Amino acid sequence: xxxxxxxxxxxxxDALKRxxxxxxxxxxxxxxxxxxxxxxxRAWATLAELGLTALPVPEAQGGFAGDAVDMFVVMxxxxxxxxxxxxxxxxxxxxxxxxxxxxxGLLERVAAGDxxxxxxxxxxxxxxxxxxxxxxxxxxxxxxxxxLLNGEKKVVLHGAQAAVLIVSSRSGGAQRDEDGITLFAVPxxxxxxxxxxxxxxxxxxxxxxxxDGARVGADALIGQPGAxxxxxxxxxxxxxxxxxxxxxxxMDALFAATLDYLKTRQQFGVPIGxxxxxxxxxxxxxxxxxxxxxxxxxxxVRLRSANGxxxxxxxxxxxxxxxxxxxxxxxxFVGQQAVQLHGGMGVTDELPAAHYxxxxxxxELTLGDADHHLARFMAQPGFTGLAA
Length: 388
What we know:
Layout: H1 7-23, H2 26-34, H3 41-49, H4 68-81, H5 87-100, H6 104-112, E1 117-120, E2 136-139, E3 147-157, E4 164-170, E5 181-187, E6 193-199, E7 205-216, E8 221-222, H7 229-264, E9 266-267, E10 270-271, H8 276-306, H9 313-342, H10 352-365, H11 370-378
Helix pairs in contact: 1-4, 4-7, 4-8, 5-6, 5-7, 7-8, 7-9, 7-10, 8-9, 9-10, 9-11
Keywords: FAD, Flavoprotein, Oxidoreductase
Family: Belongs to the acyl-CoA dehydrogenase family.
Cofactor: FAD
């Protein structure tokens, strides 16, 4: 299998890397994180100018129809730069709209950089199981056309920064059934929608969103009523694949920062990087990083091949869960080793290493942790377990 990137992909990565180095340094990022908005409109405009908001959008809606491998390149660089703008939340929401169909106008606004999205999927009891939905969607008739939404969503990434929320709800079936799930694109300012934003461990923003009889029209539907699971699962796999790519970029940057620290920190008159025991630990970190990179790239290739094709869904599930598990393991190992090698400075807010570690920790817990994806991988058809 060819794992070489195209020239256009490398050029995009290089342009993004130059912008981050020039205009999105560590201190600039800290100022953005500590601001009231938690994001920079200027940075978002630059992402749109670079074509990143249009990259995953179909050509019919003004985008470039970029696939999962194209997005791997982008997310890796955003991870290296610890970019906190709501790019991941928006492109994940765009994937819901693309898979569900019928929302060309919203996708056009995403491509132009005029619309930020957020995905309101998880609930208090659901943890990593996105089938576990208590939120209800009921027909608004005879009072009128459309639907009424009641329930609450937790830890909605960039929920307070989004203009439209992609919402999962239950219009039928039991609480954890795959049947009966209905998806909606809900304006964040719709009556009955209450958003409480906050800052997370890694500096990015999230929100809890409560729906108290929020009314949406029939045009808010994504896909067909009660048949949203296939779209939901495919989009979640896409999002998990993007997070794996971002984590690889974060680990890349953290490994480089740790190596630089070992070359400059002096002990007993020599750089501590001269000590063989520390060299062995760096070698172990590198092995974990490269294994994670390989698995994340394989997941991107499988996502590109599947591209919403239900006939290749099993292949997609296996690759994504394997990658999320391996990347989660590597993120924990690389992060913990880096903090220890930095010593007490490794957990201070003034040093980038602490911020990289926090982001890796958050990624590992987003859209299913390592344990969740290991169990999901083992549940796939054809898995026979380890030989005795």
